[in-house]
Amino acid sequence: MYPFDYQRIDTQQALSAAQQDQRGQTGKQTSYLAGGTTLLDLMKLGTLAPAVVLDINGLAHDYGDISWSGDELKLGALVRMSAAADHQHVRTDFPVIAQSLELAASPQIRNMASLGGNVLQRTRCNYFRQPGWSACNKRQPGSGCAAIEGVNRKHAILGVSDHCIAAYPGDFAQALIALDASVDILGANGTRTIGFDQLHLTPGTEPERETILLPGELITAFHVPTGPWTKRSLYLKIRDRESYEFALVSAAVAMHLEDNAIKDVRIALGGVATKPWRAREAERQLIGNRPGLPAFEAASKIAFAGAITRPGNRYKAELGQQTLTRALLQLTEMEI
Residues of the signal sequence (predicted)? Predict the structure, then answer.
């Protein structure tokens, strides 16, 4: 580890830091610290080296609550993953959210990690996390992508580019994007709210830009609207082992069934894309159809029609289709 400045800050200090960052006045790389389950790992590895670490846990009195209004679930960004997963309304009315949190990491990490930090976690690509590898456009723009011709078994097949194929690793984000969540962002000019599907970026020619957040901006809350599909929802995660492992493929799905017809359906895919991935074409294929294996298999093929594979991760296209089909079948069998 290397020397760095550490400060605990309140909301006003956070805004001041954001203003300084946006104006380029600090001259130092700063990072926010909540649970620290991603940041500290990357600092120890030498992948990230912020000169200033700003501890935002003092903001929990403003952004650390869960509220339920009947038509919307609001999750503060400093709510811990375990607290959200154990919340009564989350478990009963938004099971896909509870399951995505329960299936992530270990109990110890879920007790520490914040929801805001979780959606901003960095890729698990070894070429990014190990500075000894020089070719990583995400860490060193213009250096190349070692994973394209290297070991890429766990890498993305959707949303990739010639500059990066690193997979987004999170679970919770798939539930949020499937349920049309929105996110509050605090910055130098106050608070703005955007659709969660606008937060993350595909790599394109700039893999180093992973989100639309400006320097110094903070996520403060998530808003998840209630709908006839939220109770009939689930998260299915396929991985190499049953605990403390990232997804090879995952599916966050939600459905509104009426008179044995699919009135609405939401599909998000994890482990296979460079960002939280909404499979909207597959959704359109299903709406109006009767639920069943033929319809689900057809939609699953559409969801992966744009996959770009390499020798190491070619299996993900087939595994992804099977995973999505299985998730949709399980969804129709739910008793709500």
Answer: none
- All structural domains of the chain with their residue ranges: 233-333
Q: Kindly state the DSSP code that residue 211 receives in the 8-state scheme.
A: B
The overall average pLDDT reported for the chain is 94
Distance between CA 321 and CA 128 in Å, rounded?
Answer: 28
pTM for this predicted structure: 0.95
Residues 6+ apart with CB under 8 A from 232: 254, 255, 256, 257, 331, 334, 336
Pairwise CA distance, residues 249 & 169, whole Å:
10
pLDDT digits (tens, 9 = 90+) for 275-331: 999 999 999 999 999 999 999 999 999 999 999 999 999 999 999 999 999 999 999
- pLDDT tens across 114-123, in order? 999 999 999 9
DSSP states along 122-156 = PP--HHHH-TT---BTTTSTTS-BHHHHS--TTS-
CA-wise closest residue to 238 among 251, 224, 248: 248
Residue 36 exposure: Cα atoms within 13 Å on the Cβ side: 10
